Amino acid sequence: WVQVGTFAVPSNAEGVKARLRGAGFTVGSAKVSKAGQPLQIVFAGPFGTTGQAQAALSAVRSAGFADAFIR
């Protein structure tokens, strides 16, 4: 998986998921809570190999998500 971002505003998370889907990625998300604040983590993936994850990370960063990382 490539973690793309963590969002406190649900509409921001939905917008990112739509952008990723539009770029051809399978998208996942997880809802978590930190200090009582609900957050949504957005992921691209899963990927079958490390090489695929690395290529996806590069594409996601090129799409403007510079803080993305492999998880």
Task: Provide a descriptive summary of the structure in words.
It is globular, with a radius of gyration of 12 Å. The chain is an alpha+beta fold and 71 residues long. Helix content is 37%, strand content 34%. The longest helix has 13 residues, at 10-22. The chain is built from two helices and four strands; from the N terminus they run βαββαβ. The protein has a four-stranded antiparallel β-sheet with strand order 2-3-1-4. A hairpin with a 2-residue loop joins strand 2 (27-34) and strand 3.
Q: pLDDT average, as an integer? A: 96
The succession of helices and strands, N to C, reads EHEEHE
Helix fraction, binned, reads: 25-40%
Q: Which sheet architecture does the biggest sheet show?
A: 4 strands, antiparallel
Number of strands: 4
Tally of contiguous helical segments: 2
Gap from first CA to last CA? 5 Å
Class of secondary structure makeup: alpha+beta
Could you name the ranges where pLDDT drops below 50 across 5 or more consecutive residues? none
Cα radius of gyration in angstroms: 12 Å
| Inertia-based shape | globular
Strand content: 25-35%
| Strand order within the widest beta sheet | 2-3-1-4
